Write a sequence for this structure.
């Protein structure tokens, strides 16, 4: 095995000295995850400028026995893009692969490189008169490659699907340093195994996504937003059914937020006022996107709310009068994670259960947490329309958050077992990363884990891609 110095010299020859970061002051931002839960070590941070350089670096890593941690915007929440402590590894940052390669208006597609900031992709589509609907709180800093590697969801999954549904083709550097060009803008292609879907959601453990061809949609002529106060998650699910029945595919967003979520937001961001005059147990943020007119969208939304008020499903409602107020409603929702961070360390859960079982899950799990951890505060919010909840647990008021975090394993076990009882998933859109990779042994069958191991061994026989992520430790 050659020395580290020889390896780094080879990387510098590929990407240039200025794009090989070795000093602690330069590498530090890449070695700690967004939540500051994990910090690792790396020989260097390598920043290639294109797919050819990326492939060359991967080949060098294979020759020298160096592992690779692919990284986009480093906004992940499960430590999937953070290097582990042991072993020889580099962080391969794809930030410089940031070009929009093509926009095909007739085919309604856009091809962009993996390092493109999601918001830049949205803007490029908008400037071309189209919509790229993937939207999430980190869109100003997360990257398209990271979105695909984690199969990101966001706020518009209900209508447009998650990242997998929005992607038609990929360009991938394999674990051996070969390039698979699968950038086909096809809606139909039955020529063998679906490699695209295999790499999406694999968190950089099977290949490195370097570019993607994604779907574009017509820009809606109008968006209408409302906040509805409901007494319980069951009422919210009923409202969802009514909205889907009346609005069909025009229903773009349906977000659930508990009273405590918005009181937390108001506490830490006083300019963001609680929207209703009196406290409400739960609130739903609805949005319609209409290709006809604003009047049509407003009439439809008001009709949904009027019917739900008459039936007692909704207790109060606010319809945004303009885009400014609509943005204010969304700002409340998007500020919940920031308010949680301000409040102190917390235990996050990104879970999915069938929509029909969401109410049962909350009704069963809330009392269990209070039984075992009295005073714990539940920060329950998320994408109710697609069954994805961020079911987070905050320390009791006045308690020591660091001490409360010592209960994380026990709380996770309680929540995950409850998820399993409702036939759900312990990760809906954040992935497994380092945080949940060992937990899946309890919640996936040995057949499923065996198939995942077989795929990893086949596509990455040298184990160079993102070790210590997704798959549980070998027994």
């Amino acid at each position: 095995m050659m020395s580290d110095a020889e390896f780094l010299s080879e990387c510098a020859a590929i990407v240039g000295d200025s794009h090989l970061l070795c000093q602690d002051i330069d590498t530090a931002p890449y070695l700690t995850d967004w939540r500051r839960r994990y910090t690792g070590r790396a020989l260097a941070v390598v920043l290639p400028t294109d797919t050819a350089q990326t492939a060359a670096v991967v080949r060098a890593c294979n020759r020298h026995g160096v592992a690779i941690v692919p990284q986009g915007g480093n906004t992940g929440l499960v430590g999937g893009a953070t290097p582990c402590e042991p072993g020889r590894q580099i962080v391969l940052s794809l930030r410089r692969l940031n070009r929009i390669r093509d926009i095909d208006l007739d085919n309604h597609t856009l091809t962009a490189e993996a390092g493109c900031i999601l918001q830049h992709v949205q803007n490029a589509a908008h400037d071309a008169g189209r919509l790229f609907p993937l939207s999430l709180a980190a869109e100003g800093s997360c990257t398209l490659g990271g979105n695909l590697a984690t199969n990101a969801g966001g706020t518009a999954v209900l209508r447009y699907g998650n990242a997998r549904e929005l992607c038609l083709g990929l360009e991938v550097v394999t674990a051996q340093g070969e390039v698979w060009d699968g950038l086909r803008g096809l809606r139909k292609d039955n020529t063998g195994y679906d490699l695209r879907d295999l790499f999406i959601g694999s968190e950089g453990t099977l290949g490195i996504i370097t570019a993607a061809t994604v779907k574009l949609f017509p820009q809606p002529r109008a968006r209408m937003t409302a906040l509805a106060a409901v007494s319980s998650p069951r009422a919210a699910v009923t409202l969802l059914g009514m909205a889907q029945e009346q609005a069909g595919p025009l229903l773009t967003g349906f977000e659930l937020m508990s009273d405590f979520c918005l009181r937390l937001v108001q506490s830490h961001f006083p300019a963001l006022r609680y929207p209703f005059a009196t406290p409400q147990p739960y609130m739903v943020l609805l949005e319609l996107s209409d290709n006809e007119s604003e009047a049509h969208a407003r009439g439809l939304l008001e009709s949904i709310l009027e019917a739900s008020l008459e039936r007692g499903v909704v207790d109060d409602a606010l319809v945004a009068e303009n885009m400014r107020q609509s943005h204010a409603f969304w700002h409340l929702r998007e500020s919940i994670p920031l308010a949680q961070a301000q409040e102190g360390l917390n235990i996050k859960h990104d879970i999915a259960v069938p929509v029909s079982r969401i109410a049962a899950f909350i009704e069963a799990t809330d009392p269990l947490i209070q039984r075992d951890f009295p005073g714990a505060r539940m920060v329950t919010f998320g994408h109710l329309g697609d069954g994805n909840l961020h079911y987070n647990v905050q320390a009791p008021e006045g308690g020591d958050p660091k001490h409360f975090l010592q209960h994380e394993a026990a709380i996770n076990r309680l929540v995950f077992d409850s998820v399993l009882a409702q036939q759900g998933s312990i990760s809906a859109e954040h992935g497994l990363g380092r945080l949940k990779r060992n937990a899946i042994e309890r919640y996936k069958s040995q057949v499923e884990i065996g198939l995942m191991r077989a795929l990893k061994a086949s596509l990455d026989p040298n184990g160079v891609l993102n070790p210590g992520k997704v798959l549980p430790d070998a027994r």
